[in-house]
Amino acid sequence: MNDSTFLIEARALALELGLLAARRLQQARATSLEVEEKAPGDWCSALDREVEALLRQGIAARYPQHRFWGEEGSGGTPSAADLRGQRVWVVDPIDGSMNFLRGYPQYAVSIALLEDTQPVVACIVDPVRGEAFTAARGLGATCNGQPLAVATTPQLAQAVAATVFPKPQAAFMDTYLQELSRVMRQVAGVRRAGSMALELAYLAAGRIDVFWERGMGAWDAAAGLLLIEEAGGQLWSLDGQPWYAASALAASNPALRGAWQALWPSVGDPDLRGRSP
Asked: Residue 109: pLDDT above 90?
């Protein structure tokens, strides 16, 4: 099997499992779920773990030799040693769990396959709108089969930015609020809906122009990173770490990269792909 055939098959599996998980989420909307608050502002339910197990089983049935990293079951941020030289599926079973539990219609299933630390297959499924965003390395990005391309907005003053607010007790809250104030003075508008996966998918689809977040995990970023790259956009670290270890990321269309990155003047041009030791 050549690389392109493998990527096409893996992308098809990610889409199949993403749609299956999305149907399970829609079925569960009518049921009463026991809720756990893992930390202030960080909620989950047994359904998070159920959907993650569903995805793990589906992947293991097709690719038993691959590793699996899920937000609920694996814990912590994967290291280079966890990822290098291996194929690893990184999954967020419900990105936007608080939204899901409250009936706020902005949440998604996020699935990515990494090869030697880099995402090569991505799938983000929005159960509410019936949108499935997919990508494979070198094969482009789509939404429900239609090609995606980032916007061509040329000036930051015309741009729509998106972000995800930190958890209430985040140690970096003051830094983030300063950034938010700075951004709001530079762009046409700021949007925040509570799902990083969907915001990154929206950037790939040209619905927003720029994005930043602090305090996310690798499972939040993996699929969206590939979608953006395959749609012609760019994503980079704000703390100099490779993407899977970064605590802060930003993204934009190419025309806005310089102006957007200039809002974080202490950041040079870090190697997001983490090729350095």
From this structure: yes
Domain range for 203 is 156-261
Domain CATH number, residue 165: 3.40.190.80
Q: Which amino acid is at 139?
A: L
Q: Are residues 127 and 162 in the same domain?
A: no
**168-195 burial by CB neighbour count: b if 16+ within 10 A, else e?**
eebeeeeebeebbeebeebbeebeebbb
Q: Specify the pLDDT at position 217.
A: 83
> Residue 240: its pLDDT value, please?
87
Q: Does residue 23 form part of some domain?
A: yes
Of 121, 147, 173, the last residue of a domain is 147
The answer, yes or no, to whether residue 254 has pLDDT greater than 60, is yes
Cα 132 to Cα 235: distance, rounded to the nearest angstrom: 21
Q: Are residues 167 and 128 in the same domain?
A: no
- Residue 47 within any structural domain of the chain: yes
Per the structure, the count of domains in the chain is 2
C-beta neighbour count of 130 within 10 angstroms: 11
Q: Please report the pLDDT score of residue 69 as a whole number.
A: 87
CB 41, CB 98: distance < 8 Å = yes
Residue 266 lies in a domain: no
Residue 265: what pLDDT? 72
CA 102 – CA 76 distance, rounded (Å): 26
Q: Which of 109, 71, 111 is nearest to 89 (CA)?
A: 111
Please give the pLDDT value at position 276.
35
> Nearest-5° angle of CA 197, CA 67, CA 39?
50
**Average pLDDT of the segment spanning 154-170:** 94
3-state SS class at 111: strand
Q: Are residues 108 and 183 in the same domain?
A: no
